[in-house]
Amino acid sequence: MNRGMLIIVSGPSGVGKGTVCNALFAQDAKLTFSVSATTRAPRPGEKEGVSYFFISDAEFQRMVEQDAFLEYACNFNTSSYGTPKAYVEKMRDAGKDVVLDIDVKGAANVKKVCPDAITIFIAPPSMDALESRLRGRATENEEALQKRLREAVIEMDRIDEYEYLVVNDVLQTAVGDMHSIINAERLRTFRNVSLFNQLRGGR
Ligand code: 5GP
């Protein structure tokens, strides 16, 4: 059995990463989601252990000290986010392809320690579309929303650090594009060494 892939998905808040990924998971049982830990409060509808592990600042700090994160973004002014290492490793060892939904800095940090990670950026069709999606979601006050829009501009400036770019305009198209990328990556020869050796041995 091949070890599972690590698939990093980034994109500005409100772009629909969660919706795209959930549609992918419904179609592909080999995919699994890495649940991050965060110190921010749950939004309506978010579930503990499914959307995130909602933990305190002290717990977050303890995990940092125990080197329990594959990567983390610690921000004492707002909220911190981290990818628990143990779950990702366990799933990859079991042959599952693990999807990480992390920000641009986190993606760069993971790529340093896992150079074979696949990086996909999900972009909105335009900044106006992103703003209206964020307003439609109505989960933040105006100040927080403006902050997310400023962060979006900074993230979009770093799209060229990613291997793949998917535009989420029509959901089904974005999901199809993601699946094409994932399936093509699964067929890379270096991920199929045992099959390759078997074919060579049979010559
Ligand atoms: P939200 O608060 O909207 O759920 O997420 C805000 C940002 O945090 C998003 O850009 C998301 O990709 C990022 N994020 C979520 N989990 C992690 C994580 O484990 N590590 C890092 N570095 N960023 C994360």
What does this structure look like?
With 203 residues, this protein is of the alpha/beta class. The protein has 2 domains: 1-30 and 96-203, P-loop containing nucleotide triphosphate hydrolases (Rossmann fold, 3-Layer(aba) Sandwich); 35-94, Guanylate Kinase phosphate binding domain, CATH 3.30.63. The chain has 8 helices and 9 strands. It has helices at residues 17-27, 57-65, 85-93, 104-113, 127-137, 142-156, 171-186, 193-201; strands at residues 6-10, 31-33, 37-38, 53-54, 69-73, 81-84, 97-101, 118-123, 164-167. The strands form 2 sheets. A 5-stranded parallel beta sheet has the order 2-7-1-8-9, with helices on both faces. Strands 4-3-6-5 form a 4-stranded mixed beta sheet. The model has no long low-confidence stretch (mean pLDDT 93). It binds guanosine-5'-monophosphate (5GP). Guanosine-5'-monophosphate is lined by residues 10, 13, 36, 40, 71, 73, 81-83, 101-103, 106.
CATH class of the largest domain: Alpha Beta
Per DSSP E runs of 2 or more residues, the count of β-strands stands at 9
Bound molecule kinds, no repeats: guanosine-5'-monophosphate
Name the structural class.
Answer: alpha/beta
H/E order of the elements?
EHEEEHEEHEHEHHEHH
The number of helical segments is 8
What is the distance, rounded to the nearest whole angstrom, between the alpha carbons of the first and last residues? 22 Å
Helix percent band: 40-55%
CATH third-level topology of the largest domain: Rossmann fold
Mind telling me the CATH superfamily name of the largest domain? Answer: P-loop containing nucleotide triphosphate hydrolases
